[in-house]
C-alpha cells in the first residue's frame, strides 16, 4: 500500500479511511480566501455502500489500496444470490445481488464480469459498460414532436425502462449504458 496526500485523491481511487475501504466517487478542489486549500471528496464504502463526504488537507495522508481483479462468468441467480464461475479454475462463487446494486438488472447468462478482490474477498463486481438488449415495448410517437429533443419510454427484455429516440420500435436491438441506464445507439 502507498500513502498519498489528501489533495492527490482522484475519482476511482480506493483508499483506507477510518478503518474502512472506500472509493473516491467525486472530488472538488477548494481554495478558500483564508486558510489552506483542501479537497472535498465524496467517498463510497466498498463493503456496505455507505457514502461519506470528507475534507482532506494537503498535510493529511491516506493509504491508497490496490484491489486485485479477476475475470468471472455470470451463470445464474439463486434467490437473492448470484452464481459466478472463475474463468481460470472453474470454481463457483455465490455473491449477494446487492453487491452489484442497480447494475444487476443488466446481468445476462454467460456475461463476462470482473470481480474486485481485497484479501481474497470479493468487494465489487464490474459489468461491461454497455450491453445489447431488445426493446419489448415502446410507446408510440406523439405527432408533432421534434426528433432531436424528444425521447420516449421503452421497456427492455430484462425489464429495465429506458428512454429511446422516436424511431426505435418494439423488437429493435439497442446498446444501453449499464451504469447510466441510457440508450447509446442502435445495435449493429
Automatic annotation (TrEMBL):
<dbReference type="Pfam" id="PF08207">
    <property type="entry name" value="EFP_N"/>
</dbReference>
<protein>
    <recommendedName>
        <fullName>Elongation factor P</fullName>
    </recommendedName>
</protein>
<dbReference type="InterPro" id="IPR012340">
    <property type="entry name" value="NA-bd_OB-fold"/>
</dbReference>
<dbReference type="InterPro" id="IPR011768">
    <property type="entry name" value="Transl_elongation_fac_P"/>
</dbReference>
<dbReference type="Pfam" id="PF01132">
    <property type="entry name" value="EFP"/>
</dbReference>
<dbReference type="Pfam" id="PF09285">
    <property type="entry name" value="Elong-fact-P_C"/>
</dbReference>
<dbReference type="InterPro" id="IPR001059">
    <property type="entry name" value="Transl_elong_P/YeiP_cen"/>
</dbReference>
<keyword id="KW-0963">Cytoplasm</keyword>
<dbReference type="InterPro" id="IPR013852">
    <property type="entry name" value="Transl_elong_P/YeiP_CS"/>
</dbReference>
<keyword id="KW-0648">Protein biosynthesis</keyword>
<feature type="domain" description="Translation elongation factor P/YeiP central">
    <location>
        <begin position="69"/>
        <end position="123"/>
    </location>
</feature>
<dbReference type="GO" id="GO:0003746">
    <property type="term" value="F:translation elongation factor activity"/>
</dbReference>
<dbReference type="InterPro" id="IPR015365">
    <property type="entry name" value="Elong-fact-P_C"/>
</dbReference>
<comment type="function">
    <text>Involved in peptide bond synthesis. Stimulates efficient translation and peptide-bond synthesis on native or reconstituted 70S ribosomes in vitro. Probably functions indirectly by altering the affinity of the ribosome for aminoacyl-tRNA, thus increasing their reactivity as acceptors for peptidyl transferase.</text>
</comment>
<comment type="similarity">
    <text>Belongs to the elongation factor P family.</text>
</comment>
<comment type="pathway">
    <text>Protein biosynthesis; polypeptide chain elongation.</text>
</comment>
<keyword id="KW-0251">Elongation factor</keyword>
<dbReference type="InterPro" id="IPR020599">
    <property type="entry name" value="Transl_elong_fac_P/YeiP"/>
</dbReference>
<feature type="domain" description="Elongation factor P C-terminal">
    <location>
        <begin position="131"/>
        <end position="186"/>
    </location>
</feature>
<dbReference type="InterPro" id="IPR008991">
    <property type="entry name" value="Translation_prot_SH3-like_sf"/>
</dbReference>
<dbReference type="GO" id="GO:0005829">
    <property type="term" value="C:cytosol"/>
</dbReference>
<dbReference type="GO" id="GO:0043043">
    <property type="term" value="P:peptide biosynthetic process"/>
</dbReference>
<dbReference type="InterPro" id="IPR013185">
    <property type="entry name" value="Transl_elong_KOW-like"/>
</dbReference>
<dbReference type="InterPro" id="IPR014722">
    <property type="entry name" value="Rib_uL2_dom2"/>
</dbReference>
Amino acid at each position: 500500500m502507498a500513502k498519498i496526500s489528501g489533495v492527490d485523491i482522484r475519482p476511482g481511487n480506493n483508499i483506507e479511511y477510518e478503518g474502512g475501504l472506500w472509493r473516491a466517487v467525486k472530488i472538488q478542489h477548494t481554495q478558500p480566501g483564508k486558510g489552506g486549500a483542501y479537497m472535498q471528496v465524496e467517498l463510497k464504502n466498498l463493503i456496505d455502500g455507505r457514502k461519506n463526504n470528507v475534507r482532506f488537507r494537503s498535510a493529511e495522508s491516506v493509504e491508497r489500496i490496490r484491489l486485485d481483479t479477476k475475470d468471472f462468468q455470470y451463470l445464474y441467480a439463486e434467490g437473492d444470490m448470484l452464481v459466478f464461475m472463475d474463468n481460470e479454475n472453474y470454481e463457483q462463487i455465490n455473491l449477494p445481488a446487492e453487491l452489484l446494486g442497480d447494475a444487476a438488472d443488466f446481468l445476462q447468462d454467460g456475461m463476462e464480469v470482473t470481480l474486485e478482490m481485497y484479501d481474497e474477498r470479493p468487494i465489487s463486481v464490474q459489468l461491461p459498460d454497455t450491453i445489447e438488449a431488445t426493446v419489448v415495448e415502446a410507446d408510440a410517437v406523439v405527432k408533432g414532436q421534434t426528433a432531436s429533443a424528444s425521447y420516449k419510454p421503452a421497456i427492455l427484455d430484462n425489464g429495465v425502462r429506458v428512454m429511446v429516440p422516436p424511431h426505435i420500435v418494439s423488437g429493435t436491438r439497442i446498446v444501453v449504458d449499464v451504469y447510466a441506464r441510457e440508450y447509446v445507439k442502435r445495435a449493429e
